[in-house]
Amino acid sequence: MTTPIGMSPTALNTAQRETLVRVLDVLIPAAAGMPSGAEVGVADRWIDEALRLRPDLRDDLLHALETLEPIDAGLEDALRAYAKQHPEAFVAVGVLVSGAYYMDDRARLALGYPGQEDRRLVDDTGDYLDMLERVVERGPIFRPTPAEGAEA
Amino acid sequence: MAQPDRVEVLIVGAGPTGAIAASELIAAGFSVTCLEQGDWTHRAAFKGATKDWELSAQRDWHPNPNVRGRAADYPIDVTESDVNPLMYAGVGGATILYGAHWVRALPSDFRVRTLDGVADDWPLTYEDLQPFYEDIDQQMGTAGLGDDPTYPDGEAPPLPPLPIGKIGLRAAQGMDQLGWHWWPAPNAIASKAYRGREACVRRGTCQTGCPEGAKGSADLTHWPEAIRAGVRLITGARVAEITVNAQGLADGAVYIDRDGVRHHVAASTVIVAANGVGTPRLLLMSGRDSFDHGLANSSGLVGRRLMMHPYAAVNGVYEEDLESWLGPAGQSIVSHEFYETDLSRGFVRGAKWQVMPAGGPLGNRSGYGGHAEHGDADGEPDPLAAWGPSFHEAARRTFGRSFEWGIIAEDLPDEANRVVLSDSLVDSDGLPAPKIIYKTSENTRRLLDFHLARAREAHLAAGAIETYDTPLMRDCGWHLLGTTRMGDDPETSVVDQYGRSHDIANLYIYDGSTFVTSTGQNPTATIAALTLRAVRHLIAGRRDQEVAS
Question: Looking at the record's lineage, which domain of life comes first (chain A) (predicted)?
Fold first, then answer.
């Protein structure tokens, strides 16, 4: 596949994005209080970001999209068959779409993930000192260095 | 070929041991040059604080050099290995990407033959090393709590412990119920500002580089001061060969710069600090015109007895929100309940356990989300089982609610497990890549089975509602040990207890290559303490040191 002039080498064309939206409807639909992959822009903004980070998976994604593009009805069955025929490419698609999905704030918020945030350190030794005393009371658990000349 | 002035000590590798050695030597008045194939890694490059952290961790910041594929990394042939070796080429070496688990070996680790009748005793004891462990704790800024009954009495770490968090507390409750040992984990991570480093902020991305500069990596703990004191550190310098003069003494090294130009650095003494794969690779590449089997290899043991600590884990899923993406990562709590040998278990030696966080949604998903839970009409696993509504349901069930009991299995030495030079793969300078030949042993498999079963019990005692085993990770070879083992007998060892080559009186090895056995611990604290002991011995004996001229 060629990249049109002026388009980022990691970007997808319109047809590829449309196919990706249909794939996303199977893989990451809205459910369990979580937004769908298409809704948070996986096929628009985030897939480009994911491909920037994982250019090694681009060919697998494009192969999957090219294979699935002509499928009108029964995409779920086609995707299942594709995954069995091309398991490595399917894993690559999964890494890209899930990675893209969790970069969006709406998905993170719905899951309760603030990102790898920074937090001020707290001293929590008071939460466990009573348990730790019992460890100490059970005594040493190491075998000391044997005397010179000792044998097993 | 350029010929700079002769330096008194040339160090190959700017990882933690190269840094420690350089710091000690420059303080003692030696002229020191260090050659490093990689570069500085600036803090701003780390992705921990940005949304692309998890995807970048799978490639750009992956610990496997074959995945990362940077020019500074050399490729490694792993076609005959059960485990992939992990490392980082750059100033600070593997400490850039390590988890900073700062644990010591135990007294029994140095007397394996005497106590358990297997492998070999070390030519030194825990007591010989203890003062150096305590000194290096100060240098690295170790955070932890003293009086752990795992060890003989000694000084407490210089910094207070990091929080064990909700995951550590939950795990400790399980261990308490079972009456099993646990302890707040020691980490080389600043729990408060220390010697120019900031305090940890629990970002939890230690193993992809610390954006805060709180982790004790050698680029922060040692190199800035060593350079101010006068050490010359040359980056982008891949060493191709240690050179030897007519008297059989090491007299420098040839390195290749970024433009492909070869240089020779003349030196009176040479220290190799290139890790348990890079060091034997370099010795095997060196002196091929004069020696049949590489440099310092009259014993035939250079590259042999490779140990890499097979790693397994049990993840537990809990009902409550444990905020299990929070750091440090780093380790929360540790256990040595099953570290010592008990022959009734059907194997010798044991393992250290540690609790670690589960990471973000992808880290969590990689542990659980890929399980095919339903079969199709033919009974085959459904590749879409983890997708659709299940994608979200699994994340809801496990994200923030799971953590890992990790198991570091002691790996006994076997001469068949080894590093050799590849006859087909080369690095970006055309030098032969290392090839790893490594198989896990029956003892290791039994050990891991036992420990996985106990770790499941630990999770269930702590209230886990589900557990998942990872029996043996392929990308787990953080600890590269044993390939130039130390010993008193030149026929059965490569270096003495101070890292000096038996064959070449002014060639030293300071890294995990010199381990006699692997211990069941993260080795960096022991590697660092051994280096401190060795380099101070070298300095103390400088008047008697035979050198190239």
Answer: Bacteria
Provide the pLDDT for residue A146: 96
Q: Which long-range contacts (CB under 8 A, 24 or more apart) does B57-60 make?
A: B57/B205, B57/B207, B57/B208, B58/A54, B58/A95, B58/A99, B58/B362, B59/A53, B59/A54, B59/A56, B60/A53
CA angle, B218 as apex, B209 and B529 as ends, to 5°? 125
Kindly tell me if the per-residue pLDDT of A17 is higher than 50: yes
Which candidate from B52, B125, B391 shows the least CB-CB separation from A53? Answer: B52
Q: With a cut of 70, which residues of chain B have pLDDT below it?
A: 1-4, 290, 364-379
Cross-chain Cβ contact B396/A32 below 8 Å: yes
**The predicted structure's pLDDT at residue B211:** 95
The pLDDT assigned to B427 comes to 96
Q: Mind telling me how many Å the CA of A33 is from chain B's nearest CA?
A: 8
* Minimum Cα–Cα distance from B144: chain A residue: A125
- Cβ–Cβ below 8 Å for A146 and B111: yes
Backbone angles phi, psi at B7, to 5 degrees: -105, 150
Per-residue pLDDT tens digits for B371-430? 444 455 566 789 999 999 999 999 999 999 999 999 999 999 999 999 999 999 999 999
Residue B255, SS3 per DSSP = strand
Cβ–Cβ of A116/B203 closer than 8 Å?
Answer: yes
Residue with tokens 């000391």: A144
Q: Which residues of A touch B398 (CB under 8 A)?
A: none
CB B493 within 8 A of CB B486: yes
CB B201 within 8 A of CB A121: yes
- How many angstroms away from the CA of A3 is the closest CA of chain B? 24
What is d(CA B528, CA B20) in angstroms, rounded to the nearest whole number?
7
Taking contacts as CB-CB distances below 8 angstroms, the residues of chain A near B375 are none
How far apart CA B507 and CA B500 sit, in angstroms, is: 6
Structure tokens at B49: 């604080």
